[in-house]
Design brief:
Blueprint: H1 2-19, H2 23-56, H3 58-93, H4 106-112
Helix pairs in contact: 1-2, 2-3
């Protein structure tokens, strides 16, 4: 939203001045173009590059992010438990009680490693 507000106006004016297109058409085109560019940048720098860094340096990245992930998991635990309780209660009201799920055994973990 902020990126669109910051960039689509000037881009629309440039498109109108450069190509003589109708103002309404350039507003739509500039908004679409800004959204596409911001989406691509977000995917590349927010998803793909960090993933590749993690693949290249897995131990270093794990060591770096583990304390933060641990803190977030502890801080979010009450919310997660509340949501799980509400989900189970809703399923119970619908007569869809969740059967006991089988956990992962040590052998399965060892086999996956």
């Amino acid at each position: 939203i902020v990126g669109d507000a910051a960039f689509s106006g000037p881009l629309s004016e440039w498109l109108t001045a450069s190509f003589g297109l109708h103002k309404h058409a350039t507003e739509i085109a500039s908004t679409a173009l800004v959204v596409i560019i911001i989406t691509l940048l977000t995917i590349v720098f927010g998803e793909l590059v960090p993933k590749r860094i993690g693949q290249i340096y897995p131990e270093n990245v794990a060591r770096l992010v583990a304390p933060t992930m641990n803190f977030i998991s502890i801080a979010a635990r009450p919310l997660v438990r509340s949501l799980s309780f509400m989900t189970e209660a809703t399923l119970g009201l619908l007569g869809l009680r969740n059967k006991a799920t089988r956990g992962v055994t040590e052998e399965e973990i060892a086999a996956s490693l």
